[in-house]
Amino acid sequence: MFHLKTVWAIFLCSVILVSPGGVQAQLRLTLPESIQIALRKSKVLTIAQERFKEAEAKRKEVRAGFLPQISNSSTYTRLDIVPYMSLSEFPFSLPPGIPSRIPMGDRDIYSVATSVQQPLFTGFKLSTNYKMAQYFAEAERFNLQKTEAEVIFNVENAYWGVVKAQQFQAVSEQAVRQVEAHVEDLENMYQVGMVAQNDLLRANVQLSNTELMRIKATNAVQMAKTAFCNTLGIALDTDVGLDARLEHKQMLEIPLKRAIQTALRERPELKGMHYNLKAAQKAVSLFSRSRWLPDIVLIGDYNYKKPNRENKKKWYGSWDVTLALQMNIWDWGSTYYQTSQAKHRLRQVEEGFKQLKDGIVLEATQSYLALQEAAQKVAVTQENIVQAQENYRVTEERFKQGMATNTEVLDANTLLTKAKMDHIQALADYSIAQATLEKAMGILDPDLED
Fold first, then answer.
1. pLDDT tens per residue, range 115-166
2. Which of 139, 218, 303, 367 is spaced 20 to 30 A from 11 at the CA atom?
3. 93 contact partners, CB below 8 Å, separation of at least 6
4. How many other CB atoms sit within 10 Å of the CB of residue 428?
């Protein structure tokens, strides 16, 4: 025998419980519109966008290292005394009136220097660092795509949660009307002595429980809407109206092998990890080869100073060109240990890459099978509704003819309500399973055809 408590337990398990908010605005949304709002307002997506912009800025910073670097320095120095040449050390006596010190220059010294440095050869350090920066930027770009896919999936999940709650509410209201009609029939029959008072009392208890279920279903709709608004990043008290109903859309039949192949080809996490792997390989090259090669830099300086070379209080200019070579001869194993660290990091990334591939294959397989199962549940629950409706119709007719009891009618009503809720749950599971498979396969716009 089915009871309303069983129906309500199934209902509670399918609705997200969050704190409800007040009603202040009206906003009607389709699923694509909801996704666009979430993509604009998502804080998680904003963080991922900023990480990508940071990686791009780093790439441009490294690229600037290929170009000449121009710097300037200006100094002012005041000496304690004016530089001088001493005549007291001469081996002859100075004539009268000749000072023992002859001033040479000025106490105030000014200098303006401009330097240009152009790397000619850096042991491939610049090119290797630039490649690594490129790979990290690409990895962040795919991480941004991954975050976007997660935001879209969360919106779809919350969207169908609201639609499901609304349809649960409609079923509970229909159940109340059916029980009310039955109670009305019982009251008429009780007046003429055709049923016992206990049957009428039992029906009224059933009506009270059904009305309680409707009240909770109404509240659950608001709870689901609040969770949906939170997912979109809009005010939690926004009253949203969703222009959709749960329905079974025939999925495109594809083999599991193709779903896995699509996932391994399209998943942004895998693409991002691929670039992280390439960056780790470049890091090994940087330490194992580049650190042992010389750096050759061409340096050009122009100086503008006062006093001049003759120690006169005049400005003068001078220039010089330097070709500098520097290389590591011995660093007590520092480069060796840095290379070892890079190799160990590469090994970690390689194993992580393999682990990620296995996880994606598992996720795609589970999502594929879950969609197949959800589709079968939709068909089974649809058939259950047909049978439960016929059972309720026949039982009610038999009751009116005195061939069925009041308890049988109430049980038939409960069975029908449960069948409808099971079907709504199956439809919701199917819609979410579709979104889950699309996410697992790495496709934002589902088009499984070649």
1. 999 999 998 999 999 999 999 999 999 999 999 999 999 999 999 999 999 9
2. 367
3. none
4. 21
- Give the span between the Cα atoms of 379 and 248, in whole angstroms: 9
Separation in Å, CA 260 to CA 153, 350, 353: 19, 21, 16
pLDDT digits (tens, 9 = 90+) for 382-438: 999 999 999 999 998 888 888 888 889 899 999 999 999 999 999 999 999 999 999
Helix (H) or strand (E) holding 52: helix 43-63
Q: Of the candidates 378, 411, 301, which has an alpha carbon nearest to the alpha carbon of residue 3?
A: 411
Q: Structural domains in the chain?
A: 29-66+125-283+345-441 (1.20.1600.10)
d(CA 442, CA 420): 33
Q: How far apart are CA 313 and CA 144, in angstroms?
A: 63
